[in-house]
């Protein structure tokens, strides 16, 4: 969980709400851990922009990581222009109109199907830049419980199954898989065992293997020694470079989401209406039954005062959840959701005309610097 003392010690009176506040110290701590894994194993770790894209923090992150991985043209441009190191791209399918632009800025491009590689290969070969191309494989094995996050679930659109992968196509230099989600290195070890069984005769015929994302490396209970052994053994066995894309591990416990209570209403229970929206600002709450922790808050009945935290939108089901607090809430009370530096910042939207959250940094000096304030122009600029 987020270390609460750092945020509880500072004044939030002048911080606009709602606001994502990125913790510079926490982010640096995560990057140092990832940097140490690279040093011990020789692997190359990329920042997954789908998980963390606050580019004001890129000068810090690029001191430690090898580059960025993107899911399309806009993310690739962000990585190229703001991060400035290697740019890796994977998409389930490439738009022909965008692919020519990707060729100008990408260092690695991973194709989701053999057919798309064959169709776009002539464009790659005509490119004046050296681009290392790969194929995504599907081991058809994962220990992810929710299908919404499981790229290896039945009928998945991601990757080529072993039954369809007979040889490494000419021009392909790497293989990519993604079979983890917020998991430890023991899960990776079991996934790799399946991949070696199904794709082992191809692994020594490529230059690199990308282990994808979902590695919770910066979590306190993560077995880093096991991870380092797994990577080192794999590299030696197949003589390949290993890439990893743990976007969540970069931002894990790396900041909070500050909101404030607008009103308290009662309908058989106390309901606090916040200046935010689960659907607009923390969509995983409704899409995947995610329950964010609150600094100073607990489960219902755990502390003295129970509240249902509700959103300011007009959607009836736009409810954040039930929590308890040691003191009564009132209009103006601060609510700090922990572990909000990742994903929520890049997935929010303008539903119901609710303002997008501001973005700020809590610097090492304990001073808060506002990076961006949201306004009407952000709302109208996304419409027509």
CATH superfamily of the largest domain: Alanine racemase
Tell me, what's the shape? globular
Question: What is Rg?
Answer: 22 Å
Query: Which architecture of the largest domain per CATH?
Result: Alpha-Beta Barrel
Roughly how much helix do the residues carry, as a percent range?
25-40%
User: What is the strand content?
Assistant: 15-25%
Indicate the multimeric state. Answer: single chain
What is the strand and helix layout of this fold?
Blueprint: H1 5-8, E1 19-23, H2 24-41, E2 44-48, H3 58-61, E3 67-70, H4 73-83, E4 86-90, H5 96-105, E5 108-111, H6 114-126, E6 132-138, E7 160-161, E8 172-176, H7 185-203, E9 208-210, H8 224-238, E10 241-244, H9 247-251, E11 255-266, E12 270-274, H10 278-281, H11 284-287, E13 297-298, E14 305-310, E15 319-325, E16 334-338, H12 344-347, E17 358-362, E18 368-372, H13 376-380
Helix pairs in contact: 4-5, 7-8
